[in-house]
Amino acid sequence: MTDQVSEADVRRLFPAIKKAKAGCHEVSKGIVLEVIEEHSWKEHSHIRGAFPDGEPAFEKGFETGPIYAFHCQDSYVDVRSGNTIVDNRVVREPVFRSYVFPSAEEFDQAVVSDPQRVVLPLASAKMKNYCRFWTDSIAKMYVCERSSGLRDLVGAGATHIVAPKLKLPFQREAADLLQAHAPIRIQKKARLVRGRSLNATGIVFGGQHVGRIVRDFSDHLRTIVPEETPPDPSSSGLLYVSRNESRMRRLVNEDAILPALRDLGFEIIRPGEMPLAAQIEKFRKARIVLAPHGAGLTNILFCRPGATLIEIFPRGGVHGSMFMRIASQRDLDYYFAVGDSVATVWSETNPNNADIVLDPASFVAFVRQVI
């Protein structure tokens, strides 16, 4: 019978990671850690206003990092979860879920990697979530590229990025967009790959500790994901991102607000109905992004410097969101709006998951002031 491994059970190979200094550290024989960005504190300086007027700012700043990568000379990589296993120990990921440890049979059936190559798992704990897929899975490919010390250690050998079968459309589309830069090998059968390996945090440590490395990651994404068309000089650059096809944080009276937003020049998009490349293009050309809090805002990673984000929350669910913190690290102007909450089955355990009602006239007046 396989063992259930919880976070509390994991013997952490990096117990003092928040105190570690930048640079390479030999953790134990055959395991080298490189801290690329140290744990620190980021003060907000990008919050420009709120709706209703006088709504208090909900945080002054946040913890960032640490951001790190590590190389194991001999390990098992779990293709499905992204975990690295060394000497029957699970190397702790920044986000860790209860984990079913591989069986003896799965270890016996592990694919043995070419010793000249290094295995990097694409998978991460929450890769079914659009936001976490970019900030954990895709981002750790970039973090490993940034690991200059580990690159010297690994040498000229090619990195094999391995992934389970990508079931969700956005996962497959993202992999296709990145194939020219970093080919991804889909491993459908064997759960484990044995050999030399790399792994990393992504741009976030834990749940919300967005590192300043997100600035360079955004530049990197804009370079490696081809731009379909040049910016349209006649475009208003105003983008409203609807969530009304979702199950929570829907703007209940959206139909009463959209006509006025269109009059102001906003283009209305519904990301769930669009190919990934088209979503990216819309955000690339946006100078103001307006939307309820939700995973679609991950695409602000593609916004150009100087863009503005207006994030809408239900009352009682306002928090220092991932997108607020990405905006903070990227110096994007930030406004937040708070509407009345409408309970959903999802808000019973988390008030952030309530639907939202905004007063149309006063909210549109606020948006007009921002423009």
Task: Give the radius of gyration.
Answer: 22 Å
Query: What distance lies between the first and last C-alpha atoms, to the nearest angstrom?
Result: 60 Å
- Count of the separate structural domains: 2
Structural category is: alpha/beta
Mean pLDDT over all positions:
90
Count of helical stretches: 9
Helix content range:
10-25%
Low-confidence stretches: 5-11
Largest sheet: 7 strands, mixed
Count of β-strands: 23
Classify the beta-strand content into a percent band: 25-35%
Q: Outline, from the CA principal axes?
A: elongated
Report on the architecture of this protein.
With 371 residues, the chain is α/β, with parallel strands linked by helices. It folds into 2 domains: 4-43 and 61-223, no CATH class; 238-370, Rossmann fold (3-Layer(aba) Sandwich), CATH 3.40.50. Helices cover 24% and strands 29% of the residues. The chain has helices at 104-108, 130-146, 148-154, 169-178, 214-224, 254-264, 276-284, 322-330, 360-370; strands at 4-5, 23-28, 31-37, 40-43, 47-51, 61-64, 67-78, 84-86, 89-91, 99-100, 111-112, 118-121, 159-163, 184-186, 192-200, 204-205, 209-210, 238-241, 267-269, 288-292, 308-314, 333-342, 355-357. The strands form 6 sheets. Strands 2, 3, 7, 8, 9, 11 and 15 form a 7-stranded mixed sheet that branches. Strands 5, 18, 19, 20, 21, 22 and 23 form a 7-stranded mixed sheet that branches. Helix 6 (254-264) runs parallel beside helix 9. The longest helix is centred in the middle third of the chain and has 17 residues, at 130-146. The chain is elongated and about 65 Å long. The N and C termini lie far apart (60 Å).
